[in-house]
Amino acid sequence: MEILYRDKLPLGGFAGIKEHRLVIDQRIGGDVNTWDGIGNFVYLADARYNPYGESNMHSHSEIDIISVILEGAVNHEGSLKHGQSLATNQVQVQRAGGEGFSHNEINPDGIKNRMLQIWVLPEEAGEPANYKVYTLKKRQMTHIYGGGNGQDETLPSNTNIEVGILSKDQKIKKEGEFLAYITDGKAYLNDIVVEDGMLIHGTGLDIKAIEDNVRLTIISTQ
Which CATH number fits the domain that encloses residue 7? Predict the structure, then answer.
């Protein structure tokens, strides 16, 4: 099992955003400080928007972009679902596909917010653009990305992403290769204490929350 520590990485950013980039896969340019992803997962940044900060309007194509709101709020502008408002513990999923999309994410408040930014390459080129929003629930892992073509609950992919909020003593087990990122609280993961800002890569996940409100993101190809 390997661990990458967010706070040992350089702080970067752009526009009104400061962020630690933990995953920049070699398929999208790579970085000596960061890890590669697994499956089609290629990018992970733990970001804070400045008060009233924004990303500024920009465009994407052939990429799926997942935004997990950890603290505060985000106002979404762009060619998909313009005007959508997002609150803490909500997740926005945008598929650019072949047609592409433009967007601007804005912090509407006078204090910093916090958001995870996750990118996944599509399985097939030329897919239509798509947009989904999920609301996380306590004591539950929510499947927010990946799955077969015969369903509409999530965007299809062989790469799966689950985001959840665990209560004290709650356990999660998963077979196969995984990347898990802790964003709040403490837990035992394969008998090692993990906490906010730790990205873990391994095979066979066995996690137990030590305290309430342990928030984590799990990426797998199973």
Answer: 2.60.120.10
Is the whole model's pTM more than 0.90, yes or no?
yes
Cα–chain-centroid distance for residue 85?
A: 18
Q: What stretch of H or E contains 144?
A: strand 140-147
Distance CA 116, CA 7 (A): 15
Q: Which two tokens stand for residue 143?
A: 């499947």
Euclidean distance between CA atoms 122 and 126, whole angstroms: 9
User: In total, how many domains does the chain have?
Assistant: 1
Cβ atoms of 216 and 180 within 8 Å: the answer is yes
Range of the domain at 24: 2-220
The contacts of residue 150 (CB under 8 Å, 6+ apart) are none
pLDDT band at 148 (very low <50, low <70, confident <90, very high): confident
